[in-house]
Amino acid sequence: MSIRKTATRGLTLALVGSLALTACGSDGDGGDDGKVTLNFTWWGGAERSERYEAAIDLFEQENPDIEVQTSFGEFQDYWTQRSTDATSAELPDVIQMDASRLLEYANNGLLYDMSEFTDGGALDVSQIDEELIASGEVNEQLVAIPTGTNTLALLYNPDLLAELGVEIPDWDYTWDEYHDFLAEVTAAGADMDPPVYGATDYTMVWWFFMQHLVQQGIEPFSENGEMNFDEEDMRTFISSTDELREPEDLTFPAERTEQLLPKGGFTSGEAAVEFHWDNFLHGYSADLGTENMQLMPVPSGADGQKHMFFKPTMQLSMGANTDHPEEAAQLIDFLINSPEAGEIIGTDLGVPSSQGRLDALNVEEGSLDARVMEYEQRVRDEGHATATVPVQPEGFGALETEYVEVLAQEFGFRQIDTDEFVERWFGEAPNLLVTY
């Protein structure tokens, strides 16, 4: 087997920048009081952090010989810091992992093989679906445990739509009907102060390009990392929203997005809908200050089918450099399997992967947790989830970063056009993607 390996952004290049931590980490050694100290890090906002911290407090009460020090940051900053950690072999003991980065870290020997703890040991995986467990296996090593499942959704603000006098489309809506809806919202909100828009431009979201390809019958990547799409496929996708940009730009302005940071148009009440993963309902609700938020599936493709897919929401991994693998496995087991932790975390990390934790989840009717769970069940029951999650080869996360954090920013400010976007992305892709 020949391997062509290019410089993957983050692990083979020196990086600059740092992540502001909510608590200082330690070297993971036992303290003067004989306790073992674990470092645990994740990405996410204040809502997720409050849930994690509450669960960790409970874990420490049940395990008084273990102290957990925590840190968190926004997604891109988080991975910048993890890359810095990796270059010096100082990854935290427990890491919130994303499938888009898993191969990058596992193939570089940066993650601990947790298999030794699953056979009657500290880590119980018996309550997790075998397919989900397989998503965390690389080279016959168990390097990640999925926290739950999620799928793409259209999150919408019913109160704002009612104020504008605009109705949300039916569940079986098409992409053209979605575009008409966005134009209607933007027209209705034009005279408000500040103006209200339909949404941001979804073609600047990497995972919606993946969903587009799947709806076209294209499996984006092969198992060996080869791309199965070309420049014309990307150009067609980005051009699909031309009617929302010209002659009048109806998409949420990039300038206003920059002004609203760290919130966005949707979570500031200036856009009526937002495409994202369904588990973001919690964080978006907290940012917007209302629980009156609902979910819809993605629009149907040309064949009338949605071709949606479920994926592991997030995963928990251990740094290969941990000095306390058994205690780290105990923490992961608690977060994945504990009914008490499940009550605290809810569906913020996805619909729980552990059946035991899922069964023990006492969901209040009409709550945000209930809405996420009911949404996923309806997507399954109505046959919308007919596709498998796209292969995420080594370098997938770097490809997404180039698409979203570099080119989409320039495109949003109209500094580049569609042709230049596509040309530059395909020019950079060979430097980021690892193929076998």
Per-chain topology:
Elements: E1 36-43, H1 46-62, E2 66-73, H2 75-87, E3 94-97, H3 99-106, H4 130-134, E4 137-138, E5 141-142, E6 145-146, E7 148-150, E8 152-156, H5 158-164, H6 175-188, H7 206-215, H8 231-239, H9 242-245, H10 254-260, E9 273-277, H11 281-288, E10 294-296, E11 311-312, E12 315-318, H12 325-337, H13 339-345, E13 351-352, H14 355-360, H15 368-381, H16 396-412, H17 418-432
Parallel strand pairs: 1-2, 1-3
Antiparallel strand pairs: 3-12, 4-5, 6-12, 7-11, 7-13, 8-9, 8-10
Helix pairs in contact: 1-13, 8-17, 16-17
- Beta strand count: 13
Strand order of the largest sheet: 2-1-3-12-6
CATH first level of the largest domain: which class? Alpha Beta
At CATH level 2, the architecture of the largest domain is 3-Layer(aba) Sandwich
Shape type: globular
- CA distance, first residue to last residue: 7 Å
Helix-strand category: alpha+beta
SSE topology string: EHEHEHHEEEEEHHHHHHEHEEEHHEHHHH
The percent range for strand residues is: 5-15%
Most strands sheet: 5 strands, mixed
Poorly predicted sequence stretches spanning 5 or more consecutive residues? 1-27
Rounded to the nearest angstrom, the radius of gyration is 22 Å
- Count the domains: 2
CATH topology of the largest domain: D-Maltodextrin-Binding Protein, domain 2
Number of helices: 17
